[in-house]
Design brief:
- This protein is an alpha+beta fold.
- It has a domain at about 30-120: hpI Integrase, Chain A, CATH 1.10.443.
- Helices cover about 30% and strands about 15% of the residues.
- The protein has 4 helices and 5 strands.
- The strands form 2 sheets. A 3-stranded antiparallel beta sheet has the order 1-2-5, with no helix packed on it.
- A hairpin with a 4-residue loop joins strand 1 (about 75) and strand 2.
- Helix 2 runs antiparallel to helix 4.
- The longest helix is centred in the last third of the chain and has 13 residues, at about 105-120.
- The protein is globular.
């Protein structure tokens, strides 16, 4: 394949293989009750506690949460612009065009985020 220029030199041809239905869930995930969620939060340290709160409150994918920067948040309007994701350490656009959007932020979540930013070692807009 490399010899004829079908794939670029040094590229693993197996990386082009896709297995149909390989990423489908085998069983339905269990949904936590509200009290279970708050109990879980008690056992998480930062920054994971804040990440779980963001996931619960905004319904974002893990890759989208990892791609958030402080500059994406508009605390006056209480919104966050979801515009990038991080998968395998690589920054990219969000998974679908519908994912790139302003998402409203509850005032209580905004308060938690601002508190976390005030003690974070990465408080700049590009962090």
């Amino acid at each position: 394949m490399e010899r004829w220029g079908i794939i670029e030199l040094g590229k693993n041809p197996v990386s082009l293989v896709r297995v149909k239905n390989a990423s489908k869930r085998l069983k339905r995930p269990r949904v936590l009750e509200v009290d279970e969620f708050f109990e879980l939060l008690k056992h998480l340290g930062e920054p994971y506690r804040t990440m779980v709160l963001v996931a619960q409150c905004l319904g974002l994918r893990v890759s989208e949460i990892l791609g958030l920067q402080w500059g994406d948040f508009n605390f006056e309007d209480r919104t966050v612009l979801v515009q990038r994701s991080i998968v395998g350490g690589r920054v990219d656009e969000v998974k679908t065009e519908y994912s790139k959007d302003d998402v409203p932020i509850d005032p209580r979540l905004a308060k938690v985020l601002l508190q976390w930013r005030s003690v974070s070692i990465f408080p700049r807009d590009t962090d």
